């Protein structure tokens, strides 16, 4: 199973992030120790990585030093907890981590972690102590908010001064948002207490995974170790399904809270659960004992709720509108297979006015290249697949008589390489899509072998810096074939292929769960012989660059594989876009020069870039108030623009009749309370409220997310305009159309 690897942020299962739970401050955490099987997993992983990796690297003293540095940075990326003396304390271990791994004795990395935990507790205790005083906001000083590239603090006094400024900034944000000193102290004390609680929930498996990733990523950026639970979550992410009740969960204070209910799921069909309900206990089967889950980690709660299809789970729930002393109710639900449709391909239709005619552009948004490998292997004819979903949507768009199709791959971090190849095949007849070179130099060509096109009209691909791996394969192939216009910003630049290797297959014990390696085994190349490695895919028409290329993307890694070139594959271009791109570029530039929304976006991007470069924020109240007033003024101008009648040139979203009908049938009166909450959110969402995550009410958080989701997408609108321009040019110039398209247009 080959993977053009996805982003591996640890999923807190199909269940939202896991902030924190209150824990007694004076209770010192127990020192964590490695489990015996973790030593075995580390040793097995080292043998595989040093022999079978694309960039096979011996585990020796030189590698040990790299692991040492990366491990400390993994634990304390912003350099706010350790001081240089802590690193010096373990200086003798710099060249001994290889021995620890091969000898299956991991006491050393766990000792480092336990010192980190001690420093963490000390720093947070100091931050809470600072809350007893009141900062002086008349001083002319500033706070460096990004310290990843800073040196380690030289002394305890230096790191305390960093924390003094951090607390001062947290305080000032809340003060500018209108909170008084008492409310600020309460908010920040609870915030810092939650930091402690979250830290104390880390267990031996977490520490082992952090350490093993420090090793794996010291070889190459996209090699990772996945512990048993992370491995399960990765599998769920790939197949976009799981067996459970269909509720997205989140931790708020000590409660596990229902954040979202999946339509058509057991939770949704029952009508007994609602957003905001708090899960107090979980029981298995019809009569199993209820286990109190108050204060548990979110992934532990999720593990209790998930289970085999058609089995029963019982939830003891405190209703959303009940007080802390309210009466819980017990609800029994039968687990079913849940499809994570939010991550599936989706389509919309945008209409653009082009002179006296309207152009219809079909937009397909694809968040990831997913596939249910297990279902496909078993021969399940209905297995989940990104290609199958996109093919179905293209068929629907044909019936909708769209003039052009835009494939939106922004922030699509990759997924299945097989899906990338097969999805490209929907837009080309037959031929090579991508080349792979293994560690021994052997080059294999992955080709689309099915004749015919699912869509033979013009096509565009929208990418950004978050488009990586499989996304880059598709964009590069369509660009090399001259099959479509690539629009956006340069992509991530990940040109490597990973496979998942289960370490249990090497274990002697039958029931061992040693985790998996996501290991780089090949590098992929474009069919033109180039690679997306480091450089990414360069768009034909560039939109404003939002991402910080210095800190995000393949080129930001210190050990990324180099850019190289191999022999091109044999392929026949389907079209040639070089004649039409300059015409589209000219129209694009003329249009955005008059587009106020676009210019606002450019202003915002320049403002953010300026802040990144300065990497300092004033801690002087007068200066910050002035800055805040300027930001509020900017926001008011934008709101006035949004409140005005939309420009006649703006693309118009064509409503889906089925979706509109479903919404009308399921619509319910909002109620006075909900309306009041929504109004309160609208009134405060414009400026910084100084709060973090679960410090806001759930209603406010959900309303803000909804507003962000519904906000005007300036870049998408511009991409749609570009494709509408392309349609106009192709319909008025048959010579141009015959060069751009793989067929002679009859429309």
Automatic annotation (TrEMBL):
The keyword Protease applies. Residues 609-643 form a coiled coil. Residues 1-17 form the signal peptide. One of its GO terms (biological process) is proteolysis. Keywords: Coiled coil, Hydrolase, Protease, Serine protease, Signal. Residues 235-308 form the PDZ domain. InterPro entries: ClpP/crotonase-like_dom_sf (IPR029045), PDZ (IPR001478), PDZ_sf (IPR036034), Peptidase_S41A (IPR004447), Tail-specific_protease (IPR005151), Tail_Prtase_C (IPR020992), TSP_N (IPR040573). The keyword GTP-binding does not apply. SUPFAM superfamilies: ClpP/crotonase, PDZ domain-like. Belongs to the peptidase S41A family. This is Tail-specific protease. It comes from Pseudoduganella buxea.
